[in-house]
Amino acid sequence: MKSENPEQLKERIQVLENENDRLKEAEGKFKAIFETSPDATFLVNRTTGIIVDANHAAERLFETKLDNIIGLHQSQLHPNQQNEKAKHTFKYKPKHENELAPPVEIDIITAQNNIKNVEIRGEIVEIEDEEYVLGTFRDITQRKKTEENLLKNKTILEEAEQLSNIGSYEWDIPKNELTLSEGWQKIHGINKNKLNIDMLMSIAHPDDRMRIEKAFADALNNITSYDLEHRIIRQSDNETRYIRSRGSVIFDENGKPSKMYGSVEDITKREQTKEKLREAKKQAEENEAMLKAAMDNSQAGIAIVDVPGGKFKFSNEAANTMLSKVYEERLNNIDVNNYLGEFQILNLNGTPYKENELPLTKAVLYGTTCSEEIIMRKRDLGDRYVLANAAPVIGENGEQVAAILVFFDITESKKAEFDLQKKNEELQNLNQQLNKQKVELKQAKEKAEESDRLKSAFLANMSHEIRTPMNGIMGFSQMLQEKEFPKEKRDKFLSIIHSRSNHLLNVINDLVDVSRIEANQLTLNHQDFCLNDVLN
Known about the structure:
The protein is α+β, with helices and mostly antiparallel strands. The chain has 14 helices and 17 strands.
């Protein structure tokens, strides 16, 4: 071997010293990194598995001193069920240079019996021709809890989205990629969790696309926040749905839009309800207008009184006219009792109403429905007959909130009724007189018939009475004419003829008396007589 000259030797020594200094510097840097690393770092002999060194982060992780860690077998750092995973990490043999063992998540038990989640990484290093594993234990307990909370929150969010019909999305603006939640997909009727803006626009209702594009542009230019209600064509059934879409844009350090996070809400039912409410409001306004026109043009007086205030809240033209109020003034906020006190209100029989017995008063105080005919008397109006109908108005809570009074001026009809009643009474009197005359006529008829019957009987009797003396007169007269009789017998016959003639004269006198009785010309002759003789 050729000896080196002093200069070459000196130069070689200098190179070695520089290399040594560089190694010391590298070792110092490594030691500093090793000691200051936030992850627990172990140097493990790959052959024996013995821990030959560890940093102070290992003390904090395992909650014990380094003296209790260095010298242990690496398997003692974690539970037995995780040994295989850990062994794989510490004995990993890369296929390619600089290839690191894949990280492994395991549980460890600290010296204080606390369980922690850690992520192990292992890298094979060679020191003085000996292979070691430089292993790092990163405490991921908090991250695991965070992940569990995130997963829990995600589950809660998904359930909340399903219950509230809400979805969420994330838009990677540079990549033009939308990541969609299940709720978003359900609302839009698709089964893809990723879309781009063009595909999103194809779902939007054609009439709303320009508004959506402008809202996106304003949000991306940081002019206004993205908050828009619009329609979509749901892909599952082609049904038009209303949604409210909101989003917040995240800008990078250069002020350019980077991400947009947002939510969508299906507001179809709300819009349908609003539409129904609009239609109902329109219908109510139309009904109100028609009702107002009907009330203003109604011949019936209509007034509404609040409860318990007892003040007029509404009155139509007919009510004001009947209650002698100018139409423009109405009766608004006038106390019912004070105003009605200007009238004397009577029953139809003319007696005044007792206190609190008016139809309107009963409706206000007692919630009673009633209908009565009354007389309203006022000096300048005279007597007016009114048909008053009163009823309570019940609110949504079942309590009375008002009373309504509908009344008609029936004065003319009442007068006509009274006139008709008077005529009916006169007609009844006339009928009574006619009936009386009928009875009298009937009695007269019966009397005439009886008189006629008596006359007939009388004439029949008179005929007999006349024939009897006439037969005697004619018989004896004929006998005297036919033959001569002795004087004594002739005188007897003549005496009989004379007696029969007197008898006939009495009958004739009786006939004359009957005529005088009928003519009411009979003159009574007052004289004494013997009753027995008359009876005989």
